[in-house]
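quick q for whoever's on today - can somebody do inverse folding on this one?? i tried earlier but teh output was garbage lol. C-alpha cells:
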C-alpha cells in the first residue's frame, strides 16, 4: 500500500516539475527524461555518487531527479565563493519548503528549516547570544561533563576488561548536557523525551518521506505506523517543551536557555513566541545529538585502532591537565588532542552533504544561470576527501601539526578546507559548543582510561565508506574495552 502511494506521489511530483525550467549550462550526468538520474543514485548514500561524479564533472555540476534541478558544490573554493559572496550568499542560503518544516516545526518557526527572513535572523541571533553568554554553553557544560565523567569512570571501573558497546555511555553523556543546556537541569524524563524526539525526527526527516507527505498530506490520517510518525514526532516535540516548562516552574530553575529566554522576554520584551522557542529547542537538541554521537563514537573507535597515537595523547593530557579537571581553556595547550579531533571530523565527514540549500531567486554562478528553486548541495564529503589532502582516506592527525608539533593556524589552507560545519550564513550554529564538548569528553576520558580493542570480537578498520547512512553518518555497532589507567585504578 505504502509503496503504491509513494509511486503515485513521485509521479505527481514529476508531472508538477515537468514544465519547470532546469538549470542550464553546467556539466553533469545526463539522466532519463523526467526521471533524471533517479535510477543511478541511492539517496541515503548520495554523497558517494557525487564524489564519483566530481572527478568527471569538476567542482560544480548539475543533475536532475524527477524534474527537479540540483547543483553540487564540490570544493572548499567554490563553496566559499558561492556561499560567501553577495548577492549569491543570501540567494543560495534559503531552505526548500518542506513537510517537516511546515508540519513539525509549525510553519518554519525554527532555525534549520526556516527560509532566510527577518524571523530566522532574529532566532539565529538569539541562539548565538545564548550560547555565547554561557561561554558557548561551557559554563554549565564543564560541571556537567565532569559530573558525568564520574559516572563514566564508575562504569569503566565496574566493566574493566569486558567488551562494551560505548553507545550507551556516549548517548547518556550527550543527552545529559543537552538537557542541562536547554533546561538548566538533567531531568531524566526530559532526557527520555529528547531521545524519543531525535529518533523519530531522524526517521521522517528524509527527502523521500518528506516528499510523500508534502504531496499527500491526507496520508497523515491513515492508520499505518509510518503515517502516524509525523504526528508522533510533533507530539514528542511538545512533550519536550512541556517537560522544560514544568521542570522550570516546579524546580524554580534559574539557568539554561529556557530561563534566559523567558527572562529576556520579561526584562526586555523580546518578541519570541512559544512556538519559536519550541522550534529552537528542537533544532538545538536535534543538531546537538546525532552529529556529535557520530563524532564521539568514531573518536572512541579510532583511539582503539591507533594505540600509539592514543599513548601520545595521554602524555599530552598528563602534562597539561595532570590530575585536575580538564577545562576548555586547555584546548590551546593540547595540539595533538585537537588535531586528533579535527582529523576525526575530517576523516568521517559526519554531515556529508551538509543541509540542502535552496535558490530563492534565479542567480548566476561563474556565468551559469541557476534557476530559482534549484537545490544546492554542499558536498562536504568530497571537500574533506579531495585529492588536495594527499592521502584523504588515511587517518593521520599530524596533518594538522607543524614541524614543532603545534596546531596549524586557522588561516592555514588545510584548516581553511575543513568545512565540516558548513560555511556562510547557514553555517552550524553549534560549532564551538560541539568542539568544546568533544574536547572535554576526550581529554577527561584519556585521563581516566585507555581504550583498547575488544578481546572476543574483531574490531575492523573504521572505513568512512562503510558508515551507517542517515542525517549524520554513524559507525556500525562495535565493542571496545576501557582499561582504567594506573593513577585512577
Ligand atoms: C560534530 C558536530 C556537528 C556537526 C558536524 C554539525 C554540522 C552542521 C552542518 C554541516 C550544518 C549545515 C550548514 C548549512 O546548512 O550550510 C549545521 C547546521 C546547524 N547546526 Fe550543526 N553540527 C554539529 C553540532 C551542532 C550542535 C552541537 C548544535 C546545537 C547546539 C547544532 C545546531 C545546528 C543548527 C541549529 C543548524 C541550522 C543552522 C541554520 O539553518 O541557520 N549543530 N550543522
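ok took a stab at it. sequence:
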Amino acid at each position: 500500500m505504502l509503496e503504491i502511494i509513494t509511486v503515485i506521489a513521485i509521479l505527481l511530483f514529476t508531472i508538477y516539475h515537468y514544465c519547470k525550467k532546469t538549470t542550464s549550462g553546467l556539466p553533469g550526468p545526463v539522466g532519463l527524461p523526467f526521471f533524471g538520474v533517479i535510477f543511478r543514485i541511492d539517496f541515503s548514500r548520495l554523497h558517494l555518487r557525487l564524489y564519483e561524479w566530481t572527478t568527471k564533472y569538476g567542482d560544480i555540476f548539475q543533475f536532475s531527479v524527477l524534474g527537479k534541478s540540483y547543483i553540487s558544490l564540490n570544493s572548499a573554493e567554490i563553496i566559499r565563493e558561492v556561499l560567501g559572496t553577495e548577492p549569491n550568499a543570501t540567494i543560495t542560503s534559503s531552505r526548500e519548503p518542506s513537510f517537516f518544516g511546515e508540519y513539525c516545526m509549525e510553519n518554519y518557526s525554527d532555525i534549520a528549516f526556516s527560509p532566510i527572513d527577518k524571523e530566522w535572523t532574529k532566532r539565529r541571533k538569539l541562539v548565538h547570544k545564548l550560547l555565547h553568554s554561557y561561554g558557548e554553553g561551557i559554563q554549565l557544560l564543564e560541571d556537567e561533563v565532569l559530573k558525568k565523567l564520574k559516572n563514566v569512570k564508575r562504569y569503566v571501573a565496574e566493566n574493566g576488561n569486558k567488551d562494551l558497546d560505548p553507545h550507551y555511555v556516549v548517548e547518556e553523556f550527550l543527552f545529559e548536557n543537552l538537557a542541562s543546556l536547554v533546561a538548566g537541569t538533567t531531568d531524566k524524563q526530559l532526557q527520555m523525551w529528547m531521545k524519543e524526539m531525535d529518533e523519530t525526527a531522524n526517521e521522517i526527516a528524509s527527502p523521500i518521506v518528506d516528499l510523500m507527505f508534502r504531496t499527500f498530506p491526507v496520508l497523515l490520517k491513515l492508520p499505518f505506523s509510518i503515517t502516524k510518525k509525523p504526528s508522533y514526532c510533533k507530539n514528542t516535540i511538545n512533550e519536550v517543551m512541556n517537560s522544560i516548562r514544568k521542570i522550570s516552574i516546579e524546580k524554580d530553575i534559574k539557568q539554561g536557555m529556557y530561563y534566559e529566554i523567558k527572562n529576556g522576554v520579561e526584562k526586555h520584551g523580546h518578541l519570541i513566541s512559544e512556538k519559536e522557542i519550541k522550534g529552537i529547542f528542537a533544532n538545538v537538541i536535534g543538531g546537538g545529538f546525532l552529529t556529535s554521537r557520530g563524532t564521539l563514537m568514531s573518536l572512541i573507535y579510532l583511539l582503539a585502532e591507533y594505540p600509539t597515537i592514543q599513548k601520545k595523547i595521554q602524555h599530552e593530557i598528563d602534562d597539561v591537565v595532570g590530575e585536575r579537571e580538564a577545562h576548555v581553556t586547555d584546548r590551546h595547550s593540547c595540539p595533538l588532542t585537537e588535531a586528533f579531533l579535527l582529523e576525526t571530523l575530517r576523516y568521517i565527514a559526519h554531515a556529508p552533504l551538509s543541509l540542502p540549500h535552496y535558490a530563492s531567486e534565479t542567480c548566476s554562478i561563474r556565468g551559469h544561470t541557476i534557476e530559482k528553486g534549484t537545490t544546492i548541495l554542499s558536498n562536504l564529503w568530497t571537500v574533506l576527501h579531495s585529492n588536495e589532502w594527499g592521502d584523504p582516506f588515511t587517518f593521520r592527525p599530524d596533518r594538522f601539526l607543524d614541524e614543532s608539533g603545534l596546531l596549524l593556524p586557522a588561516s592555514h589552507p588545510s584548516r581553511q578546507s575543513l568545512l565540516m560545519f558548513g560555511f556562510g550564513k547557514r553555517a552550524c550554529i553549534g560549532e564551538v559548543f560541539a568542539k568544546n564538548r568533544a574536547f572535554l569528553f576526550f581529554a577527561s576520558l584519556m585521563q581516566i582510561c585507555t581504550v583498547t580493542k575488544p578481546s572476543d570480537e574483531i574490531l575492523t578498520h573504521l572505513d568512512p565508506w562503510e558508515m551507517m547512512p542517515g542525517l549524520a553518518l554513524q559507525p556500525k555497532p562495535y565493542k571496545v574495552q576501557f582499561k582504567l589507567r594506573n593513577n585512577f585504578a
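fwiw Residues 274-305 form the longest helix (32 residues). also The radius of gyration is 23 Å. so keep that in mind when u check it
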